[in-house]
Amino acid sequence: MAFEGLAARLQETLKNIRGKGKVSEQDVKDMMREVRLALLEADVNFKVVKQFIANVKEKALGQEVMKSLTPGQQVIKVVNEELTALMGTEQSKIAVAKKSPTVVMMVGLQGAGKTTTTAKLASHLRKQHNRNPLLVACDVYRPAAIQQLQTLGKQVGMPVFSLGDKANPVDIVKQAMQHAEAEHHDYVLIDTAGRLHIDETLMTELADIKSIVQPDEILLVVDAMTGQDAVNVAEAFHEQLDVTGVVLTKLDGDTRGGAALSIKAVTNTPIKFAATGEKVDQFEPFHPDRMASRILGMGDVLSLIEKAQTHVDEEKARELEKKLRSMDFTFDDFLEQLDQVKSMGPLEDLLGMIPGMNKAKGLKNLKVDDQQLVRVEAIVRSMTPLEKQDPSVINGSRRRRIAKGSGTTIQDVNRLLKQFEDMKKMMKQMSGMQGGKGKKKKGF
Ligand code: GDP
Fold first, then answer.
1. How far apart are CA 13 and CA 429, in angstroms?
2. Are residues 211 and 300 in the same domain?
3. Which parts of this chain are annotated as the region Disordered (predicted)?
């Protein structure tokens, strides 16, 4: 999970104050000293840290907090609110032009993840907003950038407009705009060229493209792992181009969080999206409030629910629940369930969103083994239809065959069969409890 270091430190610091029924000025001061250190260590811009601490202190020492019945919790609420405010009070959405197509220019340094992000954004617009974007390959300098966009375009099923790497970017965008109108595309995403460092030629080229296409949105793609460098890059780009939003990439590898926490405050440009991996679907709108809650270990239940909603077919879920209750649950249903879980992304990412999960003792170093899922799936797929429907027929020789077919061992097969039976038993008990006669429901 992103921001592990910061999250762990802040949670440790806040633990001391959380349950306090009485909080003194000294308590707040002590705590803020720790918070300040944690933020600086996370590579947050020092001016931002200073302002943050001042804001929290003022609010935390205010009458409302100190006189409340739960001052400890109120202080944490203040920290949470201020952390959210640092990253933007509300979620900033991508622009929608009054007149179609909406033009989005993607800018950033080489290697930040611009090309990948362009394809991710296209896929997001299609899946979540039912849009029909056109990708435009304008990075004529980086070797193979055009080809990369074409490959990604194919992967997400989105057309890519290109004139090869000999054409001039300004000509490319001009023709791309005509093409987009003729083909009724409602979004045009332009993958512009980057450089290893900011230089004048790059900025001039970007400014030329900007004046031709008059973009509705200029999204700056920055690599979160570069910390304060990302913030400096953002400042420079913003000065020259009036960037309208930031996409933070590689949050998966950013254990510190300095860029995410500083960019909005330093450049006053909102973070609109976050990328958390190389895969096309590892991309999501950036929610400052949810990110703040995750950093403070309050979990990110909303993101989890949203993820589940986009990936899980509600009807199927209801059907499954019925089956579980009626004990008709078979290995076929199990496979279907497994597919849904897998489509939600790596298990470790999901666990990080569950409140308390990342700080629970013993779970701290928990590594979820996605390989285990692969093995389980192989075993189930090696069963015959009869075996999947009625596992009780699986005798010794069948077990041997399944193990061989799935490249696992008989012990693996035995273990899975036992777990499956245990699970069914547990379900039986649970549904018995819910519908059980004479048993009172326990209230909270
Ligand atoms: P560009 O030069 O800015 O167009 O960068 P690319 O799109 O080619 O990305 C550079 C590298 O970063 C590629 O290997 C990408 O797969 C990788 N990358 C992009 N976004 C992410 C991300 O969110 N997480 C991780 N781990 N890698 C990423």
1. 41
2. yes
3. 429-444
Q: Do residues 145 and 137 lie in contact, with contact meaning Cβ atoms separated by under 8 Å?
A: yes
Among 120, 101, 307, residue whose Cα is nearest residue 213 = 101
Q: Distance between CA 231 and CA 247 in Å, rounded? A: 12
Q: In which domain, by residue range, is 33 found?
A: 4-87
- Report ipTM (2 d.p.): 0.98
State in Å: Cα 252 to ligand 1 middle: 11
Taking Cα atoms as reference points, which of 108, 92, 93, 95 lies closest to residue 221?
108
Q: Which residues pair with 220 in a beta bridge?
A: 107, 246
Domain count, the chain: 3
Cα separation, 345 vs 84, in Å, equals 25
Q: Residues enclosing ligand 1, CB less than 6 A?
A: 108, 110-116, 142, 148, 194, 249-250, 252-253, 275-278
CA–CA distance, 404 with 245 (Å, rounded to integer): 53
- Give the global pTM: 0.71
Contact 221, 107 (CB under 8 A): yes
Q: Distance between CA atoms of 412 and 231, rounded to whole angstroms? A: 50
Specify whether 107 is located in the same domain as 82. Answer: no
Do both 258 and 175 map to the same domain?
yes
Q: Under DSSP, is residue 280 helix (H, G, I), strand (E, B) or coil?
A: coil
Tokens for 392, please give them: 């009780």
Output the domain CATH number for residue 227: 3.40.50.300
Q: Which amino acid is at 275?
A: A
How far apart CA 357 and CA 1 sit, in angstroms, is: 11
Q: Are residues 139 and 254 in the same domain?
A: yes
Residue of minimum CA distance from atom 6 in ligand 1? 113
Ligand 1 pocket mutation, candidates 278, 279, 286, criterion most atoms within 8 A of CB: 278
**Angstrom distance (rounded) from CA 417 to CA 422:** 9
Shortest CA distance to 57 belongs to which of 39, 38, 42, 36?
36
Q: How many whole angstroms separate alpha carbon 395 and alpha carbon 392?
A: 8
Q: DSSP class of residue 194?
A: -
Q: Whose CA is nearest to atom 23 of ligand 1?
A: 250
Intervals of the chain under pLDDT 50:
359-364, 434-444
- Mark out the alpha helices in 242-313 (DSSP H runs): 258-267, 288-295, 301-311
What is the Cβ-side half-sphere exposure of residue 281, based on CA atoms within 13 angstroms? 11
Contacts of 430 (CB under 8 A, 6+ apart): none
Q: Confirm whether 142 is domain-assigned.
A: yes
Q: Which H/E stretch holds residue 136? A: strand 133-137
Strands 102-107 and 160-161: unpaired
